[in-house]
Design brief:
Rossmann fold, 14 helices, 439 residues, alpha/beta, eight-stranded mixed sheet, 15 strands, elongated, five-stranded mixed sheet
Length: 439
Protein backbone atom coordinates (compact mmCIF):
# COMPACT_ATOMS: atom_id res chain seq x y z
CA UNK A 1 0.00 0.00 0.00
CA UNK A 2 1.35 3.44 -0.96
CA UNK A 3 2.13 5.86 1.86
CA UNK A 4 -0.36 8.73 2.21
CA UNK A 5 0.31 12.05 0.52
CA UNK A 6 1.53 14.72 2.94
CA UNK A 7 1.51 18.51 2.62
CA UNK A 8 5.13 18.77 1.41
CA UNK A 9 4.51 16.12 -1.26
CA UNK A 10 1.25 17.48 -2.62
CA UNK A 11 2.54 20.04 -5.14
CA UNK A 12 5.19 17.75 -6.69
CA UNK A 13 2.60 14.95 -6.88
CA UNK A 14 0.13 17.26 -8.59
CA UNK A 15 2.68 18.02 -11.31
CA UNK A 16 3.65 14.37 -11.67
CA UNK A 17 -0.03 13.39 -12.10
CA UNK A 18 -0.60 16.08 -14.71
CA UNK A 19 2.50 15.08 -16.66
CA UNK A 20 1.56 11.41 -16.61
CA UNK A 21 -1.77 12.08 -18.36
CA UNK A 22 -1.46 15.27 -20.41
CA UNK A 23 -0.34 14.36 -23.94
CA UNK A 24 1.38 17.66 -24.71
CA UNK A 25 4.07 19.82 -23.08
CA UNK A 26 2.95 21.30 -19.76
CA UNK A 27 6.07 23.49 -19.69
CA UNK A 28 4.85 25.34 -22.79
CA UNK A 29 2.70 27.64 -20.61
CA UNK A 30 2.45 29.10 -17.10
CA UNK A 31 -0.41 27.68 -15.05
CA UNK A 32 -2.22 28.58 -11.80
CA UNK A 33 -2.37 26.48 -8.64
CA UNK A 34 -4.85 27.30 -5.90
CA UNK A 35 -4.24 25.89 -2.41
CA UNK A 36 -7.28 26.32 -0.18
CA UNK A 37 -7.49 26.99 3.56
CA UNK A 38 -7.07 23.31 4.41
CA UNK A 39 -4.27 22.68 1.90
CA UNK A 40 -6.30 21.09 -0.93
CA UNK A 41 -5.08 21.82 -4.44
CA UNK A 42 -6.70 22.78 -7.71
CA UNK A 43 -5.03 23.81 -10.95
CA UNK A 44 -6.02 26.00 -13.89
CA UNK A 45 -4.11 24.88 -16.96
CA UNK A 46 -3.19 27.61 -19.40
CA UNK A 47 -4.76 25.78 -22.32
CA UNK A 48 -8.10 26.41 -23.94
CA UNK A 49 -10.88 23.87 -23.75
CA UNK A 50 -10.39 23.32 -27.46
CA UNK A 51 -6.88 22.04 -26.68
CA UNK A 52 -7.97 20.25 -23.51
CA UNK A 53 -10.55 17.87 -24.90
CA UNK A 54 -13.29 16.65 -22.62
CA UNK A 55 -11.68 13.21 -22.58
CA UNK A 56 -8.24 14.54 -21.57
CA UNK A 57 -9.72 16.86 -18.95
CA UNK A 58 -11.72 14.00 -17.43
CA UNK A 59 -8.66 11.76 -17.28
CA UNK A 60 -6.63 14.57 -15.66
CA UNK A 61 -9.28 15.05 -12.99
CA UNK A 62 -9.48 11.34 -12.26
CA UNK A 63 -5.69 11.03 -12.01
CA UNK A 64 -5.25 14.07 -9.76
CA UNK A 65 -8.12 13.04 -7.47
CA UNK A 66 -6.73 9.51 -7.19
CA UNK A 67 -3.06 10.44 -6.72
CA UNK A 68 -3.55 13.36 -4.32
CA UNK A 69 -6.37 11.86 -2.29
CA UNK A 70 -7.46 14.35 0.40
CA UNK A 71 -5.09 16.97 -1.02
CA UNK A 72 -7.13 17.28 -4.24
CA UNK A 73 -10.06 19.66 -4.48
CA UNK A 74 -13.17 17.49 -4.07
CA UNK A 75 -14.78 18.51 -7.38
CA UNK A 76 -12.97 19.06 -10.67
CA UNK A 77 -9.48 19.92 -9.36
CA UNK A 78 -8.31 20.53 -12.95
CA UNK A 79 -9.82 23.32 -15.07
CA UNK A 80 -9.05 24.87 -18.44
CA UNK A 81 -8.05 28.53 -18.84
CA UNK A 82 -11.35 29.58 -20.42
CA UNK A 83 -13.63 27.81 -17.95
CA UNK A 84 -16.48 30.08 -16.86
CA UNK A 85 -16.04 31.84 -13.53
CA UNK A 86 -12.24 31.83 -13.23
CA UNK A 87 -11.38 35.21 -14.77
CA UNK A 88 -11.03 36.73 -11.27
CA UNK A 89 -8.49 34.05 -10.30
CA UNK A 90 -6.51 34.68 -13.48
CA UNK A 91 -6.37 38.39 -12.73
CA UNK A 92 -5.37 37.77 -9.10
CA UNK A 93 -2.59 35.41 -10.16
CA UNK A 94 -0.75 38.17 -12.02
CA UNK A 95 0.82 39.31 -8.74
CA UNK A 96 1.28 35.84 -7.22
CA UNK A 97 4.68 34.17 -6.77
CA UNK A 98 5.94 31.87 -9.54
CA UNK A 99 6.99 28.34 -8.58
CA UNK A 100 8.92 26.03 -10.87
CA UNK A 101 8.19 22.37 -10.19
CA UNK A 102 9.78 19.76 -12.44
CA UNK A 103 10.44 22.42 -15.14
CA UNK A 104 6.81 23.63 -15.14
CA UNK A 105 5.94 27.17 -13.96
CA UNK A 106 2.92 27.83 -11.75
CA UNK A 107 1.45 30.93 -10.14
CA UNK A 108 0.50 29.98 -6.57
CA UNK A 109 -2.63 31.40 -4.93
CA UNK A 110 -2.24 30.36 -1.30
CA UNK A 111 -5.48 30.80 0.66
CA UNK A 112 -5.07 31.17 4.43
CA UNK A 113 -7.31 31.68 7.42
CA UNK A 114 -4.29 32.75 9.45
CA UNK A 115 -0.92 33.87 8.15
CA UNK A 116 -2.34 35.85 5.21
CA UNK A 117 -0.14 38.84 6.08
CA UNK A 118 2.90 36.67 5.32
CA UNK A 119 1.87 36.62 1.64
CA UNK A 120 2.15 40.34 0.89
CA UNK A 121 4.95 41.90 -1.13
CA UNK A 122 7.43 43.76 1.08
CA UNK A 123 7.17 47.51 1.58
CA UNK A 124 10.71 48.87 1.48
CA UNK A 125 10.19 52.53 2.43
CA UNK A 126 8.29 54.09 5.36
CA UNK A 127 5.61 56.70 4.71
CA UNK A 128 7.07 59.62 6.62
CA UNK A 129 9.93 59.03 9.04
CA UNK A 130 12.46 56.20 9.50
CA UNK A 131 11.24 53.00 11.13
CA UNK A 132 13.45 50.29 12.61
CA UNK A 133 11.99 46.91 13.59
CA UNK A 134 13.65 44.61 16.11
CA UNK A 135 12.80 40.99 15.19
CA UNK A 136 13.80 37.60 16.61
CA UNK A 137 12.96 33.95 16.10
CA UNK A 138 13.23 33.19 19.83
CA UNK A 139 12.63 35.17 22.96
CA UNK A 140 15.33 35.81 25.52
CA UNK A 141 17.91 37.10 23.03
CA UNK A 142 17.98 40.67 24.38
CA UNK A 143 15.90 42.17 21.56
CA UNK A 144 13.82 44.49 23.76
CA UNK A 145 16.89 45.45 25.79
CA UNK A 146 18.70 46.43 22.59
CA UNK A 147 15.70 48.48 21.48
CA UNK A 148 15.69 50.34 24.80
CA UNK A 149 19.43 51.03 24.48
CA UNK A 150 18.85 52.25 20.92
CA UNK A 151 16.08 54.56 22.09
CA UNK A 152 18.25 56.18 24.75
CA UNK A 153 21.19 56.52 22.34
CA UNK A 154 19.08 58.26 19.71
CA UNK A 155 17.40 60.49 22.30
CA UNK A 156 20.81 61.51 23.67
CA UNK A 157 21.66 62.56 20.10
CA UNK A 158 18.68 64.91 20.14
CA UNK A 159 16.16 62.80 18.22
CA UNK A 160 12.55 62.40 19.26
CA UNK A 161 11.99 58.66 19.52
CA UNK A 162 8.70 56.76 19.48
CA UNK A 163 8.94 53.13 20.64
CA UNK A 164 6.05 50.77 19.85
CA UNK A 165 5.57 47.34 21.49
CA UNK A 166 4.08 44.83 19.04
CA UNK A 167 5.01 41.88 21.25
CA UNK A 168 1.42 41.59 22.41
CA UNK A 169 1.75 38.30 24.26
CA UNK A 170 5.03 38.98 26.08
CA UNK A 171 5.20 42.78 26.32
CA UNK A 172 8.20 44.49 27.83
CA UNK A 173 8.69 48.09 26.72
CA UNK A 174 6.03 49.52 29.01
CA UNK A 175 7.71 48.26 32.16
CA UNK A 176 11.26 48.77 30.84
CA UNK A 177 11.04 52.39 29.70
CA UNK A 178 8.20 53.72 31.85
CA UNK A 179 7.61 54.07 35.56
CA UNK A 180 4.23 52.73 36.71
CA UNK A 181 2.75 56.22 36.94
CA UNK A 182 3.97 57.02 33.40
CA UNK A 183 2.05 54.17 31.77
CA UNK A 184 -0.61 55.54 29.40
CA UNK A 185 -4.24 54.55 29.68
CA UNK A 186 -4.25 52.42 26.54
CA UNK A 187 -1.81 50.54 24.31
CA UNK A 188 -1.45 48.74 20.98
CA UNK A 189 -3.90 45.98 21.94
CA UNK A 190 -6.53 48.58 22.81
CA UNK A 191 -5.94 50.38 19.52
CA UNK A 192 -6.48 47.18 17.51
CA UNK A 193 -9.66 46.37 19.43
CA UNK A 194 -11.18 49.85 19.37
CA UNK A 195 -10.37 50.85 15.79
CA UNK A 196 -12.98 48.41 14.54
CA UNK A 197 -15.63 49.27 17.14
CA UNK A 198 -15.69 52.57 19.00
CA UNK A 199 -13.20 54.26 16.70
CA UNK A 200 -10.01 56.26 17.16
CA UNK A 201 -9.66 60.00 17.70
CA UNK A 202 -6.93 62.38 18.82
CA UNK A 203 -7.77 61.94 22.50
CA UNK A 204 -7.52 58.17 22.30
CA UNK A 205 -4.25 58.44 20.39
CA UNK A 206 -2.76 60.67 23.08
CA UNK A 207 -3.96 58.21 25.73
CA UNK A 208 -1.83 55.49 24.07
CA UNK A 209 1.47 57.35 24.49
CA UNK A 210 3.59 57.42 27.64
CA UNK A 211 6.47 59.87 28.13
CA UNK A 212 9.56 58.26 29.62
CA UNK A 213 11.38 60.06 32.43
CA UNK A 214 14.54 58.13 31.56
CA UNK A 215 15.42 60.74 28.99
CA UNK A 216 13.69 63.61 27.26
CA UNK A 217 12.63 62.58 23.79
CA UNK A 218 11.54 58.97 24.46
CA UNK A 219 7.85 58.12 24.04
CA UNK A 220 6.35 54.68 24.44
CA UNK A 221 3.25 53.01 23.04
CA UNK A 222 3.09 49.87 25.22
CA UNK A 223 1.23 46.70 24.33
CA UNK A 224 -1.12 47.29 27.27
CA UNK A 225 -1.95 50.45 29.17
CA UNK A 226 -3.01 51.11 32.73
CA UNK A 227 -6.64 50.30 31.91
CA UNK A 228 -5.76 46.66 31.24
CA UNK A 229 -3.53 46.58 34.30
CA UNK A 230 -6.60 47.63 36.29
CA UNK A 231 -8.71 44.91 34.61
CA UNK A 232 -6.23 42.07 34.04
CA UNK A 233 -8.93 39.45 33.46
CA UNK A 234 -9.76 41.18 30.16
CA UNK A 235 -6.21 40.99 28.75
CA UNK A 236 -6.56 37.59 27.06
CA UNK A 237 -9.95 38.54 25.65
CA UNK A 238 -8.39 41.60 24.03
CA UNK A 239 -5.45 39.64 22.63
CA UNK A 240 -7.85 37.17 21.02
CA UNK A 241 -9.50 40.01 19.10
CA UNK A 242 -6.51 42.25 18.41
CA UNK A 243 -5.14 40.33 15.40
CA UNK A 244 -8.51 39.88 13.67
CA UNK A 245 -9.36 41.61 10.42
CA UNK A 246 -11.62 44.65 10.71
CA UNK A 247 -14.63 45.07 8.43
CA UNK A 248 -15.31 48.56 7.08
CA UNK A 249 -17.95 49.27 4.49
CA UNK A 250 -17.94 45.64 3.49
CA UNK A 251 -14.15 45.51 3.07
CA UNK A 252 -11.76 43.55 5.27
CA UNK A 253 -8.80 45.40 6.79
CA UNK A 254 -5.98 42.97 7.66
CA UNK A 255 -3.78 43.33 10.69
CA UNK A 256 -0.80 44.77 8.81
CA UNK A 257 -2.99 47.54 7.39
CA UNK A 258 -4.33 48.38 10.84
CA UNK A 259 -0.82 48.63 12.26
CA UNK A 260 0.26 50.77 9.32
CA UNK A 261 -2.67 53.12 9.99
CA UNK A 262 -1.72 53.27 13.67
CA UNK A 263 1.88 54.27 12.97
CA UNK A 264 0.78 56.84 10.40
CA UNK A 265 -1.53 58.38 13.00
CA UNK A 266 1.28 58.73 15.55
CA UNK A 267 3.70 60.06 12.95
CA UNK A 268 1.18 62.59 11.63
CA UNK A 269 1.47 64.54 14.88
CA UNK A 270 4.95 65.66 13.81
CA UNK A 271 6.29 64.81 17.27
CA UNK A 272 8.81 62.12 16.26
CA UNK A 273 11.98 61.71 14.22
CA UNK A 274 12.23 57.91 14.29
CA UNK A 275 10.04 54.94 15.25
CA UNK A 276 11.48 51.82 16.92
CA UNK A 277 9.24 48.74 16.72
CA UNK A 278 9.57 45.75 19.03
CA UNK A 279 8.27 42.68 17.18
CA UNK A 280 6.91 39.46 18.63
CA UNK A 281 9.38 36.58 18.83
CA UNK A 282 8.72 33.76 16.38
CA UNK A 283 6.81 33.54 13.09
CA UNK A 284 3.38 34.56 14.32
CA UNK A 285 0.98 36.63 12.20
CA UNK A 286 1.83 39.76 14.19
CA UNK A 287 5.48 39.41 13.13
CA UNK A 288 4.58 39.68 9.44
CA UNK A 289 3.63 43.35 9.70
CA UNK A 290 6.97 44.73 10.97
CA UNK A 291 8.91 42.38 8.67
CA UNK A 292 6.98 43.05 5.45
CA UNK A 293 4.40 45.80 5.72
CA UNK A 294 5.76 48.81 7.57
CA UNK A 295 8.74 49.83 5.44
CA UNK A 296 11.06 49.33 8.39
CA UNK A 297 14.73 48.55 8.41
CA UNK A 298 14.98 45.07 9.92
CA UNK A 299 17.32 44.02 12.69
CA UNK A 300 17.10 40.20 12.81
CA UNK A 301 18.30 39.07 16.24
CA UNK A 302 19.68 35.64 16.98
CA UNK A 303 22.12 33.73 19.15
CA UNK A 304 24.85 31.60 17.57
CA UNK A 305 22.92 28.36 18.02
CA UNK A 306 21.16 25.91 15.68
CA UNK A 307 17.61 27.03 16.54
CA UNK A 308 18.39 30.53 15.28
CA UNK A 309 19.60 29.38 11.90
CA UNK A 310 16.84 26.85 11.37
CA UNK A 311 14.17 29.45 12.18
CA UNK A 312 15.64 32.05 9.85
CA UNK A 313 16.01 29.39 7.15
CA UNK A 314 12.24 28.91 7.23
CA UNK A 315 11.53 32.65 7.31
CA UNK A 316 13.91 33.69 4.55
CA UNK A 317 13.05 30.77 2.28
CA UNK A 318 9.38 31.74 2.50
CA UNK A 319 10.16 35.37 1.71
CA UNK A 320 12.33 34.50 -1.29
CA UNK A 321 10.21 31.73 -2.77
CA UNK A 322 6.61 32.64 -1.88
CA UNK A 323 6.50 36.45 -2.00
CA UNK A 324 6.81 38.49 -5.21
CA UNK A 325 9.74 40.87 -4.79
CA UNK A 326 10.74 39.20 -1.54
CA UNK A 327 14.44 39.11 -2.42
CA UNK A 328 14.48 42.92 -2.34
CA UNK A 329 14.05 42.71 1.42
CA UNK A 330 17.80 42.06 1.57
CA UNK A 331 18.28 45.80 1.14
CA UNK A 332 16.51 46.41 4.47
CA UNK A 333 17.83 43.53 6.61
CA UNK A 334 20.75 43.18 9.01
CA UNK A 335 21.50 40.23 11.25
CA UNK A 336 22.29 40.94 14.90
CA UNK A 337 24.29 38.32 16.76
CA UNK A 338 23.04 38.72 20.32
CA UNK A 339 24.87 37.57 23.45
CA UNK A 340 28.03 37.16 21.39
CA UNK A 341 31.19 35.72 22.90
CA UNK A 342 34.51 37.42 22.07
CA UNK A 343 36.01 34.24 20.61
CA UNK A 344 33.19 33.13 18.29
CA UNK A 345 33.21 36.00 15.78
CA UNK A 346 34.63 34.02 12.87
CA UNK A 347 32.49 30.91 13.11
CA UNK A 348 29.37 32.97 13.85
CA UNK A 349 30.01 35.07 10.74
CA UNK A 350 30.33 31.90 8.68
CA UNK A 351 27.08 30.50 10.04
CA UNK A 352 25.18 33.71 9.37
CA UNK A 353 26.76 33.78 5.90
CA UNK A 354 25.29 30.33 5.31
CA UNK A 355 21.81 31.90 5.51
CA UNK A 356 22.67 34.18 2.63
CA UNK A 357 22.63 32.78 -0.89
CA UNK A 358 25.71 32.55 -3.07
CA UNK A 359 23.47 33.68 -5.90
CA UNK A 360 23.60 37.38 -6.47
CA UNK A 361 20.47 39.23 -5.45
CA UNK A 362 18.75 36.49 -3.42
CA UNK A 363 18.39 36.07 0.30
CA UNK A 364 18.58 32.35 0.66
CA UNK A 365 18.85 29.17 -1.32
CA UNK A 366 18.15 26.45 1.24
CA UNK A 367 18.90 22.83 0.68
CA UNK A 368 16.12 20.31 1.27
CA UNK A 369 15.99 19.45 4.96
CA UNK A 370 16.38 15.86 6.02
CA UNK A 371 15.49 14.23 9.35
CA UNK A 372 19.00 14.75 10.71
CA UNK A 373 18.71 18.52 10.20
CA UNK A 374 15.98 18.73 12.83
CA UNK A 375 18.20 17.29 15.55
CA UNK A 376 19.70 20.78 15.94
CA UNK A 377 23.23 19.48 16.52
CA UNK A 378 26.26 21.10 14.96
CA UNK A 379 28.71 19.12 12.91
CA UNK A 380 31.65 17.54 14.76
CA UNK A 381 34.00 20.23 13.50
CA UNK A 382 33.86 23.90 12.70
CA UNK A 383 34.97 23.58 9.09
CA UNK A 384 34.22 26.68 7.10
CA UNK A 385 31.00 26.73 5.13
CA UNK A 386 30.95 28.34 1.67
CA UNK A 387 30.59 32.09 1.98
CA UNK A 388 28.80 34.44 -0.39
CA UNK A 389 30.76 36.90 -2.45
CA UNK A 390 30.43 39.43 0.37
CA UNK A 391 29.74 38.58 4.03
CA UNK A 392 26.23 39.09 5.28
CA UNK A 393 25.87 42.34 7.28
CA UNK A 394 26.30 41.31 10.92
CA UNK A 395 26.03 43.46 14.05
CA UNK A 396 27.42 41.95 17.25
CA UNK A 397 26.12 42.63 20.76
CA UNK A 398 28.37 41.14 23.42
CA UNK A 399 27.22 38.78 26.14
CA UNK A 400 27.26 40.89 29.31
CA UNK A 401 25.96 39.60 32.63
CA UNK A 402 25.30 43.19 33.70
CA UNK A 403 22.39 43.24 31.22
CA UNK A 404 20.91 39.87 32.11
CA UNK A 405 18.28 41.68 34.15
CA UNK A 406 17.58 44.98 32.40
CA UNK A 407 15.65 47.56 34.40
CA UNK A 408 17.00 51.06 33.69
CA UNK A 409 14.12 52.71 35.54
CA UNK A 410 15.50 51.22 38.77
CA UNK A 411 19.15 50.82 37.73
CA UNK A 412 20.33 53.87 35.81
CA UNK A 413 23.89 52.52 35.81
CA UNK A 414 22.83 50.26 32.93
CA UNK A 415 22.61 53.39 30.78
CA UNK A 416 26.16 54.52 31.57
CA UNK A 417 27.64 55.59 28.24
CA UNK A 418 30.92 53.73 28.63
CA UNK A 419 29.20 50.53 29.76
CA UNK A 420 26.65 50.71 26.97
CA UNK A 421 29.26 51.30 24.29
CA UNK A 422 31.43 48.41 25.47
CA UNK A 423 28.51 46.00 25.04
CA UNK A 424 26.34 47.55 22.32
CA UNK A 425 29.01 49.45 20.38
CA UNK A 426 28.25 47.71 17.05
CA UNK A 427 24.57 48.55 17.32
CA UNK A 428 25.28 52.18 18.21
CA UNK A 429 27.59 52.57 15.23
CA UNK A 430 24.93 51.11 12.95
CA UNK A 431 22.32 53.53 14.35
CA UNK A 432 24.65 56.50 13.84
CA UNK A 433 25.20 55.47 10.23
CA UNK A 434 21.52 54.89 9.47
CA UNK A 435 20.38 58.11 11.09
CA UNK A 436 23.39 60.04 9.71
CA UNK A 437 24.35 61.23 13.17
CA UNK A 438 28.05 61.57 12.38
CA UNK A 439 27.59 64.14 9.64
Amino acid sequence: MSPPIRFDDSLPQLVASLKAVYPGDLAAAEHIVIRDFEGRLAVILHFLEADLTADVLERLNIAVAKDLGPYARPEDPVRAWDTLGISRLIEESKTAPVLQIDSVNFRLLDRRIVGADWMMSPVLEPDAIPRIAFISIKGGVGRSTALSIAATHLAQAGLRVLTVDLDLEAPGLGSTLLKPDELPTYGVVDWLVENGLSGIDGTFRADCIGKSSLLDGISVVPAFGSQTRAHPADALAKIARASLEDMRNGNSIPLHAQLHEMLKSFEATGDYDVVLIDGRAGLHETTAAPVLALGAKLLLFGINEPQTFLGYTFLLAHIRERIPGGAKLEENAWFVQAKADPGDAEIAQERFNALWSNEEGSLLKPERLGPDDLDLIWADNDASVPSPKEPVPLIRILNDERYRSFNPVENRVQLDEQLVRSTFGGLLEWLDEQMELNK
